[in-house]
Design brief:
Elements: E1 6-12, H1 18-29, E2 34-36, E3 45-52, H2 56-62, E4 67-75, E5 78-79, E6 88-90, H3 99-107, E7 111-115, E8 124-125, E9 128-129, H4 130-135, E10 145-160, E11 166-175, H5 181-192, E12 196-206, E13 209-210, H6 217-222, E14 227-228, H7 229-236, E15 239-241, H8 244-251, E16 264-267, E17 273-280, E18 283-289
Length: about 290
């Protein structure tokens, strides 16, 4: 019996890499054809979308969708990794910073911003991950990139540290793919002149997939199932149901004389998921065919 194709929304625990989660799902699904849509650091928890069998081909398109996070930023200390796992590089404290100043600075990160990714990101530099180069003692200078923070809400600002010399900030944000929350912590600390780093990160959504749908590895070990690929595609992209003639063209990857607003999931009359198509050169052309 072949393994079903679909998505698994995992609530990743802290301490595991995204690759660790993929390895667990491979064993549970009984197939090597498993991948994930966007890395979560070992310290981070929350939504990790995993594809099984043919659904792995959806993952590259899901990578482009927006994401949401809950995070805690500590102000007054900077680290090499912009999170709590790095070595402290400066500890100025934040005794002179108040909540109003924190909220004002963080409000400035909403909208389109130029962001320099953290040096220990998974971005490749001349074929090697940036974090591999940093761990090997190399200096890594990553160019800034344009990202969008759609929404950033500060929930709490409170004193921390042995003598109240630090500030912990709880916040939530919704952002474009490629946005580094660690970099926001770093840059907010720099803007306040005290340094900052991330102490907790929980991803609450990847596109339409949320914590409400996520299952722990323990739950998956008890009862393993996938969200079928057709349901996953309908949830993730605009959908169009075709007649049989158009479906035949799509099965062969042919262009369709049809207007699409963007990347769209196409379905046969019986509900079978056929392909992702996109507008190109005035017609709808195949981005990926799944049959």
């Amino acid at each position: 019996m072949s393994t079903a194709s679909g998505l698994v929304v995992v609530d990743k625990p802290g301490g595991l890499t995204s690759h660790d989660v993929v390895a667990r799902v491979r064993r549970l699904a009984g197939t090597r054809k498993v991948g994930h849509a966007g890395t979560l650091d070992p310290m981070a928890t929350g939504v990790l979308v995993v594809g099984v069998e043919r659904a792995t081909r959806l993952l590259g398109h899901l990578l482009l969708t927006e994401k949401a996070y809950d995070a805690t930023v500590r102000l007054g200390v900077a680290t090499t990794t912009d999170d709590a796992e790095g070595e402290v590089t400066a500890a100025a404290g934040a005794a002179g910073v108040d909540g109003a100043a924190v909220r004002e600075v963080l409000a400035g990160f909403v909208g389109e911003i130029d962001q320099v990714p953290t040096a220990v990101s998974a971005i490749k530099v001349d074929g090697r991950r940036a974090y591999e180069r940093v761990r090997a003692g190399e200096e890594v200078d990553l160019p800034s990139r344009r990202v969008t923070v759609h929404e950033l809400t500060v929930h709490d600002v409170r004193r921390a540290g042995e003598h109240g010399e630090l500030l912990d900030v709880d916040l939530s944000l919704r952002c474009s793919s490629g946005t580094y929350v660690r970099a926001i912590a770093r840059d907010a600390g720099a803007a306040l002149g005290v340094g900052g780093h991330l102490t907790a990160l929980r991803r609450t959504a990847v596109g339409p997939f949320t914590l409400g749908q996520a299952r722990t590895l323990e739950e998956l070990a008890d009862t393993f199932s996938v969200l079928p690929i057709a349901e996953a595609a309908r949830a993730s992209f605009p959908a169009v149901d075709l007649d049989e003639a158009a479906a035949t063209h799509v099965r062969h990857g042919r262009a369709l004389d049809r207007e699409l607003d963007g990347l769209t999931a196409l379905f046969a009359p019986d509900g079978e998921f056929l392909a992702l198509y996109e507008p190109r050169d005035g017609v709808a052309r195949a981005a990926a065919v799944f049959v």
